């Protein structure tokens, strides 16, 4: 029995989702190397990961994945069995204003990771994708076969482009392609899984790691918790005139710990040779649509507080509704979202209180 622990590189691993995934990987028995340039986070969550896991020896490489020689050196320094690529900018609004910044950072970092993986004997690549690729659709819930729509912003475009890059690299290097490619690269195969997240929310039950947006939060839940703690004056609910039951947008809010566990299941699928094709896609959501107003009301109820909010005009770029058909991930990954929205919203509030030293 091969006792060598498998090692997973988590790029962007000091961030919100990356830190939760690192905890779950370590608790599942993997070795982890975290690489992060700290452009969008500080070391708070990485320190929290060490406390939660009791591991003080998790290798941390402060580096920019856009720096090809550094990425190459990383793969030379560590034997990497799988890489989970989170390192990317992800603010929708900012990506409309600064497309070049987004295309450069999100594409070059991923290309460097793939290049190094390929040149080091092949690898298993798990790409952090997003439900944004589906765009606006009235055919809900969306499955992995649902068509991708033209992206509404460069953030969403980079997710689509990176998925396509991964398909091409798998096909060029892998014996796992749709058909065995004559003359496929003699280098090891690159296999790939794209996980399309819906709306990640919440925090680890320890309240030692969670979402730590720099500046004014773009996303709903951190804006809610910062309003509740008094850092923000009032939550604006962007639009209550949508064609939905209560007029506010519908989303599929997935607990970040459930999301992290989906990554562990996907890594295991790749490392245990369970993949059916060289490239696979899975929706990672709950399958349950929740409106903005429902979420606000539930947050107030479970945390026994009153939130200051008002209805405001619609936000440009928002889609009316999206939620996942999760049957493929349930079946093939043996994974299902388990945490209740109530517990998730409690964890988000406990994290905000932890940050405030309460
Ligand atoms: C959710 C709903 C807003 C803030 C984006 C990306 C997705 C993923 C998550 C990055 C919408 C409403 C929000 C506020 C509000 N990527 N809202 N007041 O836009 O669904 O998804 O972030 O992590 O890929 O596309 O998430 O949380 O910004 O908005 O009313 O102050 O909450 O209008 O209906 P979104 P969100």
List keywords for this structure.
358 residues; alpha/beta; UDP-galactose 4-epimerase, domain 1; seven-stranded parallel beta sheet; globular; binds UDP-4-deoxy-4-formamido-beta-L-arabinopyranose
What does this structure look like?
With 358 residues, the protein is an alpha/beta fold. The protein folds into two domains: 3-201 and 253-284, 3-Layer(aba) Sandwich (Rossmann fold), CATH 3.40.50.720; 220-252 and 287-325 and 339-355, UDP-galactose 4-epimerase, domain 1 (Alpha-Beta Complex). 39% of the residues lie in helices and 16% in strands. The protein has eleven helices and 13 strands. The chain has helices spanning 16-27, 44-53, 68-77, 92-97, 99-119, 154-173, 220-229, 256-271, 292-302, 327-333, 341-355, and strands spanning 7-11, 31-36, 60-62, 82-85, 123-130, 190-197, 199-201, 235-238, 250-251, 253-255, 279-284, 290-291, 309-312. It has a seven-stranded parallel β-sheet, with helices on both faces. It has a two-stranded parallel sheet with strand order 7-10. It has a two-stranded parallel sheet with strand order 8-13. Helix 2 links the parallel strand 2 (31-36) and strand 3. Helix 3 runs parallel beside helix 5 (99-119) and helix 9 (292-302) packs across helix 11. The longest helix has 21 residues, at 99-119. The chain starts with 6 loop residues before the first strand and ends with a helix. The relative contact order is 0.14. Residues 176-186 have low confidence and may be disordered. The protein binds UDP-4-deoxy-4-formamido-beta-L-arabinopyranose (WQD). The site of UDP-4-deoxy-4-formamido-beta-L-arabinopyranose has 18 residues, from helix 7 and strand 8.
């Amino acid at each position: 029995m091969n006792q060598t622990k498998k090692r997973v590189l988590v790029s962007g691993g000091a961030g919100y989702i990356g830190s939760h995934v690192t905890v779950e990987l370590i608790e599942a028995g993997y070795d982890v190397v975290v690489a992060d340039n700290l452009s969008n986070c500080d070391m708070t969550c990485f320190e929290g990961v060490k406390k939660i896991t009791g591991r003080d020896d998790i290798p941390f490489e402060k580096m920019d994945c856009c720096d090809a020689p550094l990425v190459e050196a990383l793969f030379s320094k560590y034997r990497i069995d799988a890489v989970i690529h989170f390192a990317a900018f992800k603010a929708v609004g900012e990506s409309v204003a600064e497309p070049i910044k987004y295309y450069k950072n999100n594409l070059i970092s991923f290309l460097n990771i793939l290049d190094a993986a390929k040149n080091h004997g092949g690898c298993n690549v798990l790409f952090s994708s997003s439900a944004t690729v589906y765009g606006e659709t009235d055919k809900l819930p969306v499955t992995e076969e649902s068509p991708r729509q033209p992206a509404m912003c460069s953030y969403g475009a980079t997710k689509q482009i990176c998925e396509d890059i991964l398909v091409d690299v798998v096909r060029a290097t892998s014996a796992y392609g749709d058909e065995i490619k004559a003359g496929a690269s003699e280098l090891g195969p690159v296999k790939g899984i794209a996980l399309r997240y819906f709306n990640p929310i919440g925090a680890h039950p320890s309240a030692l790691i969670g979402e730590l947006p720099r500046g004014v939060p773009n996303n709903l839940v951190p804006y809610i918790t910062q309003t509740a703690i008094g850092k923000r004056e009032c939550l604006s609910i962007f639009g209550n005139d949508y064609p939905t039951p209560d007029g506010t947008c519908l989303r599929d809010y997935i607990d970040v710990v459930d999301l992290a566990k989906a990554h562990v299941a996907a890594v295991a699928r790749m490392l245990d040779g369970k993949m059916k094709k060289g490239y696979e896609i899975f929706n990672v959501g709950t399958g349950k649509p929740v409106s903005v107003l429902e979420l606000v009301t539930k947050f107030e109820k479970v945390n026994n507080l009153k939130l200051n909010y008002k209805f405001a005009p619609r936000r440009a770029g928002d889609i009316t509704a999206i939620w996942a058909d999760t049957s493929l991930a349930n079946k093939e990954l043996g994974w299902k979202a388990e945490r209740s929205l109530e517990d998730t919203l409690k964890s988000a509030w406990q994290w905000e209180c932890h940050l405030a030293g309460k």
